[in-house]
Amino acid sequence: MTALAVRDLVAGYDPALPIVRGVSFDLAGGAILALLGPNGAGKSTLAKAVAGLVTVVSGSIHLRGTPLGDVPAHARLRRGLGFVPQTDNVFAGLTVAENLAIAAAILPRAGRAGRIAAMLTLFPDLAAARRGAAGRLSGGQRQMLAMARALIAAPAVLVLDEPSAGLSPKLVGVVMARLRDIAATGVAVLLVEQNVRAALAIADHALILVEGRVAHAGGGATLRDDPAVAALYLGGRHAA
Amino acid sequence: MIAQILVDGITSGAMIGLGAIGLTLTYGLLRFANFAHGEFATWGAYLALLVAGAIGPADPLGPLTFGWPLLAALAASMVLTALLAAALDGVLFRRLRRHGSAITLVIASFGASLALRSALEFGFGPQPWYYTRDIAMTVRLGPGMRATWDQLAVLGLAIVLMLAMHLLMTRTPLGRAMRAVSENPDLARLAGIDPARIVRVTWLLGGALAASAGVFLGVTVQLRPSMGFELLLPLFAAAILGGIGSVPGAMLGGLIIGIAEAASVPLAGAQYRAAVAFVVMLAMLLVRPSGLFGGRGG
Questions:
Q1: How big is the CA angle at B80 (ends B20 and B72), to the nearest 5 degrees?
Q2: Segment B43-72, tens digit of pLDDT
Q3: Among partner residues B180, B195, B295, which is closest to A91 by beta-carbon distance?
Q4: pLDDT digits over B109-126, tens only?
Q5: pLDDT in tens, A185-215
Q6: Distance, in angstroms, between A99 CA and closest chain B CA?
Q7: In which element (H, E) is residue B176 found?
Q8: For the domain that residue A55 is a member of, what is the CATH number?
Q9: Are B176 and A153 in contact (CB < 8 Å)?
């Protein structure tokens, strides 16, 4: 079943000047869809529109067959949509445990401790740091905490806005591997990335946006081997 | 003398701290300085006067000057003032937040402050009122230290309320959500928190705590329509001193301002008492603009 369906989406901060201009795609459970493209292409705006943070001018977003049009951002996690922003994605003044508890609060009381424990198992680095302030975590740990917070309510769809930003190549590999693990559990992953090579390495499908429109679409491996895409986005060389 | 300054300062500082909690939470959440906050203290004090009057006289509790009706009136006035604060937000500030700028909100809060104070002056007149005319008995706490039993009762109740507030903010999902919205409203929405609900709760809590400060001020001093307005500068000083948005900061800031004010009376004269809060606030803004607990929240 399609977990996330986006149709002819037009969105932006100013309705008169939309940044996303007519994008459509389907994302199935367990699949990873990478949204790629140059700066200003509308990738992050599209992700934020899906999360309810940016105004949708026209078009539709369906989550597991249900339209999200009038659903406010704070209610989308409860509906099954988790979002990890690129920056400021943890509550720095709260502890790691409090960050997790905040998202777990939408679950029935009996299930909260179990889900928090599951996240600490999935991201073992967080377990040791759970009593410390989230603001003191390293960049990689913050990214893990942000992912754990978004996953704690067991969403059907996980949207991530450039999770590799600011991370070392080694940590990028760790994050991408974790995303593959998460998708393997049936979660649909919408991955906005500047790191084209890393994203295409794990994506089942990819869309390349240019000026708010889909310029290229295809399987992750297909796009990675496409000479035109490689010339534009992979430094002119085919990925290994 | 120093010991007595501490007793007086801690008692008035606890009241300032209670009032400053609501101010700092509102500022931390909505990013605007609510100049009507002091009026919540005044309205709380007068509402308690009305409720206590409606209940009728009763024997004082032990050595205190007041009986159980004032305690019941305190609880009632906290609820009523909480509703008043939430109503003021619903009628005025919420609409302006949608369309106005920060300065519009501040000016509107000035207007609301004047309107609320004038309404009390119209209803009760400019003269002072008292919960009781009984003489407060003092107790010797140590060498050079005396306090009235009323002061000690007020201090005890203020500490209970501050502890309850601290536990609410640190140990409950609601408190965590309030801190989360204050730190990053967009991320809080993504974490499933409805910011509009948190804003409503903040107004209710801020109004209730300001009311308690007003009642305590009425018990230890007197009730006047301008009492909340005169409390406003110490409230802002305490909130800024502690760090905007920080509940423990507001509590500590209140105590420091209270002690500084009490110390200024023998050193510089009672007429300069209010100026001390202003000086402390300016000094903190110059030395450490983020305050003692700045950036930590909670």
A1: 95
A2: 999 999 999 999 998 899 999 999 999 999
A3: B180
A4: 999 999 999 999 999 999
A5: 999 999 999 898 899 999 999 999 999 999 9
A6: 9
A7: helix B173-183
A8: 3.40.50.300
A9: no
Q: Give the closest of B187, B195, B297 to A85, CB-based.
A: B187
Domain ranges of chain B: 2-125+145-287
Read off the pLDDT of residues A138-180 as tens digits, 9 standing for 90 and up.
988 999 999 999 999 999 999 999 999 888 888 899 999 999 9
Spatial contact of B70 and B61, defined as CB atoms under 8 Å apart: no
Task: Please tell me the total count of domains within chain A.
Answer: 1
Contacts of B199 in chain A (CB under 8 A): none
- How far is the C-alpha of B79 from the C-alpha of A2, rounded, in Å? 49
CB contact under 8 A, B189 and A53: yes
Q: Residues A186, A34, A141, A98: what is their CA dihedral angle, to the nearest 10 degrees?
A: -60
Would you say residue A113 lies in a domain?
A: no
How far apart are the CA of A234 and the nearest CA of chain B, in angstroms?
A: 32
Q: Which one, of B45, B35, B6, lies nearest residue B213 by Cα?
A: B45
Strand partners, A60: A7
Is B172's Cβ below 8 Å from some Cβ in A? no
Query: B176 to chain A nearest CA, in Å?
Result: 7
pLDDT tens for each residue of A12-33: 998 889 999 999 999 999 999 9
Residue A14, class by beta-carbon neighbours within 10 Å (0-12 exposed, 13-18 middle, 19+ buried)?
Answer: exposed
Task: Calculate mean pLDDT across residues B80-97.
Answer: 95
CA distance A96 to A145: 7
Mutate to test the interface with B, among A50, A68, A91 (most CBs of B within 10 A): A91
Residue A134 sits at the chain B interface (C-beta within 8 Å): no
> Which CATH architecture best describes the domain B2-125+145-287?
Orthogonal Bundle (1.10)
Q: How far apart are CA B45 and CA B130, in angstroms?
A: 10
SS3 letters across A179-224 = HHHHHHCCCEEEEECCCHHHHHHHCCEEEEEECCEEEEEEEHHHHH
d(CA A188, CA A166) in angstroms, rounded, equals: 24
